[in-house]
């Protein structure tokens, strides 16, 4: 059974139009006009148990709307969803026992009471037996170093402390699927990396399936082997992160540190005719841009054979650059390949 199975899922919001001016407002009183916003447009994907999948897209692409449908908060306009075998908006009570949710911008903890009291309330909501609750709480508190925070009211926690508590709250009932909507938003680099390590451990030790929505592509790099990319309500990429990089990356930068001053014309002469470009950083450091179509070992061999090299660093194009490029280029994608390795029908990208 797939952890998440989504077929031709669509969500259309109906919003009222506000006419301008006093006469417009009066007209609205008697006859409202509506327009439709198609936030999610017939998307399909499956996520097997135990996978960490990134769900990315620009503002307004439809990510949160999808997560809300997957967690049963919103009802789809059309299409089918199964999460852990349940239809989320129907079988609410049994369905929520199997999922955990963290919305980075919204808290599931009670603001004015101690963190531990919030956890106790959630234990009741999810009907977790006392012994199980204790052992799970001990494990999570130790892992996320929450010991000192448990008696503090949530309003007195820093954002990083609160987010660690939110994660505990979402995992107390041992859900098999975790939905994370911007879990690292606004956090400093240390807390971000703590949270990423924690999620990796949860996935490895308990096989927790994670669907992660984020604008922070470092989250994706650190956690996800697969990414689903959304644009204007449609899936425009579904596949491996490495494949995404290979497909979209235009080349590599290779930085050389030389043992003595090495002028650019000498380096350009060594690599003449193979299509690389040089940039001097200083007298003893230069960077060679190697487009994908150029053979890297040939380019390297030419430099190694003619210059005194102390150090070499290779920089791949990073995910941030690639994703920015995809959103801004409007380039056509090749057929989307699902994580299962099956080539799906061509998803026409509408990239703006
Ligand atoms: N309750 C709603 N009523 C009307 N329109 C909505 C509602 N919720 C979302 N939308 C619209 O649906 C589209 C998708 O919004 P959604 O919040 O899913 O995008 P998102 O990818 O999560 O964006 P962000 O990264 O900014 O959170 C947007 O055009 C948004 O304005």
From TrEMBL:
Region (Disordered): 331-352
PROSITE patterns: ABC_TRANSPORTER_2
Domain of life the protein comes from: Bacteria
Molecular function in Gene Ontology: ATP binding
Transmembrane feature ranges: none
Domain ABC transporter: 24-257
Regions of compositional bias (Basic and acidic residues) in chain numbering: 342-352
Protein name per the record: ATP-binding cassette domain-containing protein
Species annotation: Paenibacillus thailandensis
